[in-house]
Specification:
- This protein is an alpha/beta fold.
- 30% of the residues lie in helices and 18% in strands.
- The chain is built from six helices and ten strands.
- The protein has a six-stranded mixed sheet. A two-stranded antiparallel ribbon has the order 1-2. It has a two-stranded parallel sheet with strand order 6-7.
- The longest helix is centred in the middle third of the chain and has 20 residues.
- The radius of gyration is 18 Å and the shape is globular.
Amino acid sequence: MSALFSPFELRGTRLRNRIVVSPMCQYSADAGAASDWHMIHLGHLALSGAALLFTEATAVVPEGRITPNDLGLWDERTQAALAPVLAAVRAHSPIALGMQLSHAGRKASSRAPWEGGALLSPADGGWPPFAPSAVPHKDGEAAPQELDAAGLDRIRTAFADAARRAARLGIDVIEIHGAHGYLLHQFLSPSPTGGRTPMAARWRTACAFRWRSSTRCARPSRTIGRWACASRPRTGWTGAGTSTRP
């Protein structure tokens, strides 16, 4: 048998093969809540024969969404909206379910990619984003608010709360999004828009452990935790590749 189609076990979750459907942003949620589109999108992928299916990047707080139409899991309403989608998947497929928890940092409050992806102002339906430093994502855009220690603790708590909600929904695998220039990647990156401030420098080496630890403590032992991060060649961090750490 090809290794691709051989079973694989991770912390008690048995995958029938090694094919995984990666998270794919859909920009189709209603104020963070899953819609009929998610029923169709995840439903047809659940019948693909893959062993593990991820939801799209799921924001842990409203201001952590990339766009206003990103999926979220920060309250009872967003949890309740996902419940029938996941129940339908489980009723018709043996596929394991994963969720990627995310906070976009300075890349939050953006237009959809097909609308150019520029920062949305509060007047246009956006919100002030938060980041490790008050440096704009792009020239000409408003600067984000620099996070302080209290803000970081609030976001870390939001990751843990979202992990608990995911566990209540029966999610088998939780992945923390630490790539693509989003909040956690911004702290780990030495680029000018990342870890150049005292706050960022203080958190750069600790943030991965802190977020992983808070999320691990929030979820049952049967749930697998993964950290998705950008690769680091000798020249510095880049979003071109991703890797996962247990």
